[in-house]
What does this fold into?
Amino acid sequence: MSEAKNVFRPANLQTSSLASCQVCHHTVPNRQQLILGSKAEFIMATHKLFLLPGDGIGPEVMGEVRRVIQWFQDKNIASFKLDEGLVGGAAYDAHGESISDADMAKAMAADAIIFGAVGGSKWDTVPYDKRPEAGLLRLRKDLALYANLRPAIVYPALADASSLKRELVDGLDILILRELTGGVYFGEPKEITELGNGQKRAVDTQVYESYEIDRISRVAFELARTRNNAVCSMEKRNVMKSGVLWNEIVTQTHKDGFEDVKLSHMLADAGAMQLVRTPKQFDVILTDNLFGDILSDVAAMLTGSLGMLPSASLGAIGEKTGLRKALYEPVHGSAPDIAGQGMANPIAMIASFAMCLRYSLGMGEWAGKIETAIALTLDQGLRTSDIMQDGMKKIGTTQMGDAILAELDALA
It folds into this structure.
């Protein structure tokens, strides 16, 4: 988080409001009180956010986040400096790359990145290394965003929208922690080789080193301490050497100051089965890049719609700043079939901004208020088309944003 600019700071500067972020390991001043004689002036920190709307419905749902950000500024609750760039197909059309070096530099300099969605059939034939998704992969890799937080929460009003029975998902609140910069998506060699006689061989490589497993395990245990204090680690140690190492290092890290957290282990395929059998048995699920990709999508459908789920990708703590690089994005894709029609569900995008407030900006209380505003809006029976139910009122993207802002106003 950046400090307020161009402000004289004498020795009698006092902090009037502090928020502690357990995962980020820093104490963040949201607003500071400067005592000058008998007068008190408030200096508000300015948060630098870099917005990457992307493709499809990305710009539409990002527009609703912009309105929420403006609400915070209009209420004098927080100050934001916004910049916007191109990513995915939009960047390819403009620059011939999935993200430009200039926009990567802006991402590096930001306190947090708010990301929409990328992709669409329009770019199916572009070179593999320039495909829309490559922009997101570069952001994750270059910013070293190794910890992907994927919450799966069932709002009471949507319990019947799940593919499972209400009693299995009502009150569900689990968190899948996916290692994001290692494993089979980044391992080398990664190639397709011509063998002759019309035959080819494809190779992807699953690689993990001890330090990668250790650092993601520590995040899992720290997160569990803020929840129900339980971690279930999932891998395939029965058939994969990387799974054997994963299990070994997670167990070892648990003994290094985290023995108060309940740790269990489960094979990833069994974990997928248990997620749809009795999902409420889990609190934090810790897993690698590949299995995390699959398990988090399974968990997403427990909630009724991908349009409801946010995510956060966090990096290492900077030695100079004490802060983590971070990117926040909805789980859903670019949905080009409904782009431009005002139908997209903005809830996951708005909830991703709430995660930004919690994990990057030290504004956990306001993150909770946004999440409460979403729940209250759903309690009114308002639904976008992806979560429409009998007897509910169907509304569009902007109307959903209006309703959430109205509830946030009432909570302020």
About this structure: Residues 36 and 65 are 36 Å apart (CA to CA).
